[in-house]
Sequence to fold (320 residues):
Amino acid sequence: MSTSFLDFEKPIAELQSRIDELRDTTADSAVDIGAEIAKLQAKSDKLLRDTFAKLTPWQKTQVARHPQRPHFHDYVAHAFSDFVPLGGDRLYGDDQAIMGGFARLNGRRIMLIGHEKGNDTQSRIKHNFGMGKPEGYRKAIRLMDMAHRFGLPVITLVDTPGAYPGKGAEERGQAEAIARTTQKCLELGVPLIAVVIGEGGSGGAVAFATANRIAMLEHSIYSVISPEGCASILWKDAEKMREAAEALRLTAQDLLKLGVIDRIVKEPLGGAQRAPREAIDAVGKAIEAMLKELSGKKPEALIKDRRQKFLDMGSKGLAA
Fold:
């Protein structure tokens, strides 16, 4: 499947289109234009490198939302093994936006929880575009309790524009469910590692990222509100989302400086959507490294480490 181009990638798209046309011409012609194709490809690669070396926060937001970025199911298929999905919150129902279950990472048993956005119209509707409902967060609490009982590390993959804001979700206690999930994260006596693989939006993301170690993919975002929502509140104009993205400090690079996250996982050139398996492998290796950092810590130490991490959050940026 070819990668779809974002608005700011238009010059790259035009070059790539020209290269594809020349390749088609080569197949039907005796004239060798391989040198011309190689020259254009080198130009395209350089333009791609230069473009992604200086992305603005709003452009990073667009990359983080790219529909072809690998999602939860892709990570389950390629980074983990023996995944056993567990459903239901034992109170109301099962939420398909939040998935979870037992899995193995290079043979080590873990509890895996994350958001699933879907990759086509039908699956996006099924998974509610990754926007969790109260029953999804209560399911996560149930799975975290199970992990605690069995002494299994919890790995969360964060990728949501935010928790679902619908009337039914509010009636079923959305805010309470998110707060209790966050509280449960703080109480766990097992290692908890979170990786933001796309969007980390609002409390729906914080509920899964109140962890001992937090990593972000290089072009992912993590913020208290979406740039459009922030612009609507501050300037009464959603079109000021570019200014909002700058002000929110939502990029992985900004958040590492502020001490909100612990590491950045490098993406393939042009974003995870261009080489999903490479990005998935990089995330898997980062999780293994973070698990090793927490290896041997007692439950009390893990809880203290996690609480202190959030009490200290932001002090780096303030000191600077």
User: Anything to note?
Assistant: The radius of gyration is 21 Å. The longest strand covers residues 192-201. The chain is about 50% helix and 15% strand. The mean pLDDT is 92.
